Amino acid sequence: MYNSCKPVFLALGLLLALGPIACNSDDNDDTDAACADTLCTAIFIRILVSVKDQDQDPVILDAFEVINVANGADMTIALSASELEGAKEFGQYPLVQDGTLALNETRHIQFKGFINGAEVITSTYTVSTDCCHVGLDSGDLELTL
Which pTM value belongs to this model? Predict the structure, then answer.
């Protein structure tokens, strides 16, 4: 009889061991408590701004920055040399990503692109997070120079 119940006990043990998975293991404050029962995907979200010229060719920016409009803080995502090369090749630059904002936060940010030290493009966005991921609330991710 024990052998016929073995799969049931194994399944029950796994179910109890895995339990609910929450976004954040620290459930001490109100924000974390609101997210305590939320199941999140393991996807990492990075929102990109695409900068193209009039012919729809990617624009190679010498530099770009992302600024928190409320306090002027620099929020630019640091890229490795290969990531920066890819961003320039495709004209797609990171705006914001998971982990940049606190849970359930909304922020107004500004993207600025530079060529030869001159600011050539600027766009403002509203981004927010839920219990799991960052998202775009407003702003155009397709910019034309």
Answer: 0.75
| Strands 118-129 and 134-138, sheet pairing | antiparallel
Contact 144, 58 (CB under 8 A): no
- Cβ neighbors of 75 (< 8 A, separation 6 or more) are 66, 67, 68, 96, 100, 109
- Residues 131-142 have pLDDT tens digits of 999 999 999 999
Query: If you write DSSP's letter for every residue of 22-47 in order, what string do you get?
Result: -S-S---SHHHHHHTT----SPPPEE
- In angstroms, the Cα distances linking 76 to 16, 30, 93, 98 are 42, 28, 10, 13
Q: How far is CA 124 from CA 102, 107, 111, 137, in A?
A: 20, 11, 6, 11
